[in-house]
């Protein structure tokens, strides 16, 4: 457990871990059953498995969107409202924000069962959200699950960029100073956001176009375009780990350690024993403040 003197480190890490969990959900069940459907040339698992697969896929997608939004708001508060940050993101408040993020994710998925929009699509061998079931519901999904979060995240990052430019140009002498670690963490999550928008944008805009006029637009959407947009969205879940490794030295070091441990299991047990020993010996420094903690990478 992190000491109470590290609110940014705790809040920043917990939302990143939550985003990672959302990305991993698709690997637990939806991806394996999709591979099974591909090998079987169709869906052979029944309607229950289809609904479960579609639900978990939605859980991953919407969970990723809402966690990216929560991370952007967290970065915005930390950089642009640093004096209020400790109060806004105390340990208790952070846990509440995290729980709220996942509660909203579940609430956003439940209507699919009433509308009947989780169906098997033979073009992509998966049970997923059917865009043609209800025009109004499809529009609501695109707006609530994509356009609104994208708007919130864009606003947060634009405000951060404006502050960064002001600090570099020293427009105001009382502007808060930004440490290199702050900029690296911001840049990492900004890239994650941009890639998410690029990967999920085509599928959402196709859904929006189909929802506006299903009979006229749906037949004109080329099958290859729909398949490409769908698998672009799938591929996004694999990209975040790559971005973390490319832009964050701590993640690169941990990746190397894990790979070395897989090659030599003795190293894994040795690292675990060392980690336990160091955790027992280490004590949180009473001198840690929000200023020096910010120098650590998330």
UniProtKB/TrEMBL annotation:
Task: Tell me which Pfam families the record gives.
Answer: 7tm_1
Can you tell which superkingdom this protein's organism belongs to?
Answer: Eukaryota
| Listed transmembrane segments | 7-32, 52-73, 94-115, 135-165, 186-212, 224-247
Domain (G-protein coupled receptors family 1 profile): give its ranges: 1-244
Record flagged with keyword Nucleotide-binding: no
Protein name per UniProt: G-protein coupled receptors family 1 profile domain-containing protein
Q: Does the keyword 4Fe-4S apply?
A: no
GO MF annotation, one: melatonin receptor activity
UniProt keyword terms in alphabetical order: Cell membrane, Disulfide bond, G-protein coupled receptor, Membrane, Receptor, Transducer, Transmembrane, Transmembrane helix
Which species is listed as the source? Answer: Chiloscyllium punctatum (Brownbanded bambooshark)
Name the PROSITE patterns for this protein.
G_PROTEIN_RECEP_F1_1, G_PROTEIN_RECEP_F1_2
How the protein sits in the membrane? Multi-pass membrane protein
Location relative to the cell? Cell membrane
The record's comment on protein family reads: Belongs to the G-protein coupled receptor 1 family.
Give the InterPro entries listed for this entry.
GPCR_Rhodpsn, GPCR_Rhodpsn_7TM, Mel_1A/1B_rcpt, Melatonin_rcpt
Q: Name one GO cellular component term.
A: plasma membrane
């Amino acid at each position: 457990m992190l000491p109470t003197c590290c609110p940014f480190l705790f809040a920043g890490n917990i939302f990143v871990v939550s985003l990672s969990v959302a990305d991993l959900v698709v690997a637990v069940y939806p991806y394996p059953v999709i591979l099974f459907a591909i090998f079987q040339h169709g869906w052979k698992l029944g309607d229950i498995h289809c609904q479960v697969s579609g639900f978990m896929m939605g859980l991953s997608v919407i969970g990723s969107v809402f966690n990216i939004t929560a991370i952007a708001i967290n970065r915005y508060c930390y950089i642009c409202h640093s004096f209020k940050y400790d109060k806004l993101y105390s340990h208790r408040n952070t846990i509440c924000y995290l729980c709220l993020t996942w509660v909203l994710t579940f609430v956003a998925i439940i209507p699919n069962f009433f509308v009947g929009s989780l169906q098997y699509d033979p073009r992509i061998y998966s049970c997923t959200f059917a865009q043609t079931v209800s025009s109004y519901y499809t529009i609501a999904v695109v707006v609530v699950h994509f356009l609104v979060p994208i708007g919130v995240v864009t606003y947060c990052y634009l405000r951060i960029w404006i502050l960064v430019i002001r600090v570099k140009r020293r427009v105001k002498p009382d502007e808060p100073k930004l440490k290199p670690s702050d900029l690296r963490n911001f840049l990492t999550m900004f890239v994650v956001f941009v890639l998410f928008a690029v990967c999920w944008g085509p599928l959402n805009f196709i859904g929006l176009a189909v929802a506006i006029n299903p009979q006229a637009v749906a037949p004109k959407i080329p099958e290859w375009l729909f398949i490409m947009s769908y698998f672009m969205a799938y591929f996004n879940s694999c990209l975040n780990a790559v971005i973390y490794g490319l832009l964050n030295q701590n993640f690169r070091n941990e990746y190397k350690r894990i790979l070395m441990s897989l090659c030599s299991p003795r190293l894994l047990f040795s690292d675990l024993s060392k980690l336990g020993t160091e955790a027992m010996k280490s004590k949180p420094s009473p001198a840690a403040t929000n200023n020096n903690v910010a120098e650590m990478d998330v």
